[in-house]
Amino acid sequence: MVQLGWDSCDIVIVTGDAYVDHPSFGMAVIGRTLEAQGFRVGIIAQPDWHSAEPFQALGRPNLFFGVAAGNMDSMINRYTADRKVRSDDAYTPGGAAGRRPDRATLVYTQRCKEAYADVPVVIGGIEASLRRIAHYDYWQDKVRRSILVDSKADLLLYGNAERAVIDVAHRLARREPIQAITDVRGTAFMRRQGDPSAVGWYEVDSTEVDRPGRIDEHINPYLMTEDAAASQGQTCARSDAGESAEQPEAVPTAVIAMPPSRKTGRVVMPPREKTVVRLPAFEQVREDPVLYAHASRVLHLETNPGNARALVQRHGDRDVWINPPPLPLTTPEMDHVFDLPYARSPHPAYADENGRHDGPTKIPAWEMIRFSVNIMRGCFGGCTFCSITEHEGRIIQSRSEDSIIREIEDIRDKVEGFTGVVSDLGGPTANMWRIGCKSPQIEAACRKPSCVYPGICPNLNTDHGPLIRLYRRARALRGVKKILIGSGLRYDLAVQSPEYVKELVTHHVGGYLKIAPEHTEGGPLSKMMKPGIGTYDRFKRLFDEASAAAGKKQYLVPYFIAAHPGTGDEDMMNLALWLKRNGFKADQVQTFYPSPMATATAMYHSNLNPLKGISRDPARAERVDIVRGEKRRRLHKAFLRWHDPTNWPMLREALKALGRADLIGNGKHQLIPTYQPATDAGYTSARRKNSTPAGARVSGVTKGRLLTQHTGLPPRDTGDRPDAEAPRAGGPGRGRASPRAAGRREPRR
Last residue of a domain, which of 295, 315, 335? Predict the structure, then answer.
């Protein structure tokens, strides 16, 4: 500030991550975006939260504090799926743990209020996004209130918030009170019941699930307006078609009771832009898992920016009001965000005496993405265990080819240590760049949670041609030796373009390619909204053919999830048999992690399937098998680590209970042997030995999923992505090593 001649900051951003000025770090993107608008922005990274003093380091901000927990939810960052404390933090210098508090958004907001009570606090980032309504909290095993209520922040921004934060900053700069900022998309705020500012809104009551009617038919609250009208034999003009429909008389607030509807008369619905859907209150969802699942379903059906309505949920005597999601950024807007003058390195405060960032204070997350390029946002896969839909949305936002090439050239010319290898061109997925709906009108009206499940939508453009041209142009750049693809590949899309698979396998795979079948059995896959294992087999054939044609030995590295909702013990047994049959020995294993607001988390909490609709009638509601309790969770992990002798006693008991004792034996097609080694001398633990035996095959964990490696292959760093789960202390290679892979003879009877 002294060097710049500033006497104060307009905006101070508080973040739980170390400050890395790179477009993969949220605080850098927001800071640079606001700076480009002419605001003076300061960043306080990983402050000591035990007092308010560190939050006063940059003085009183003129406009507001911006608070974010970091690139990860602070609880997921600190705790494993077994609720054990992690020993490291990838977003901290040196990977040190304990540099941010639990529920960091709450704590930081409280300290900002203590530091300067009259300064507005705006919260954002993924932790705020995924906790914007009443949500199930896995660590306390209960439903918590909206983070807006608990933090007492003035405003919440969810999703990618460039547009929203610019709008809020300019309005506050015009001295508009923050309480009056209630019309910005992608924001949530508190409103007292009966607030005059709610006049003119029409409220759809969705505080109860569907109930079978005696005489009247029911309007399905999950249908679009025109579909609801059609179900009644009536018509209703589509708002996106530009036709005018008869509207109800203007009244201060009308409550439209749903689902009941009369069978006769014209179905008239209020304008979508002035409609708010009332979810069950916090007090209701806290006590009633059925209503929690219902609220989750309604929220996920209101995530398309083209047709989403505002949501409201009562907390005590106040309402949490959630405006519709932000509109996706256009390609020029995406280019603007990524073309800002990022230093592309950690702050100099983290450097050693020689000004280098590769010593004991290096930031592991930055190392992972140091030479990678983010080319898009969003994902239309809709996987129920993933939170991308709730945060970034399912509409793909792509950068231009020229912008991507400029960033690669910047890495080549400016980033220290670049050797000519770009580690990734990707994003949430590797191959959705410039892919989307063929019709903007259909896209704006669609309420499907996925464009690729149960099959690829016929309205989806699956042309990989632009991506192929980008790859070719990028690898032809001077000084670029290799372009690798490190993001997870959506292989059900890739099989639609054999030319893309050939291009990828021939030029952009460094021996291993990560993909995510997640499971082999139809039951779990249907709860994940993932394609069947047959699609994996088709992709593998294309992959193997292309590798052979290129004269290369390359391997697929599949991910699998243990203990996902809907997974039975028999499903895990069948997955273990598939792993053995295909020669995979999983090393580090992590079970399903119920992240806030995910659809799979609603399944976990309620034992119901929101994908199929919610009902109190047991005959109409689909129950979901949930893996709870340490013993059963350990069993599902054990099936994935079928080759570990320490798991054999547990697996023998389970196989007998399943009536599959025939799988116990020494035959080629049996899962585990009948013998039990007297000691573990034949099975060396890399953790206990603090080293990996020569030639042993190990693996790592990415995004809370199991990463498997083919046995008998040379060791290789797994290269986890920065938005992945923080790697265990010591990084890849700290799991158990296979005795067979290590070249030792296993005991024989």
Answer: 315
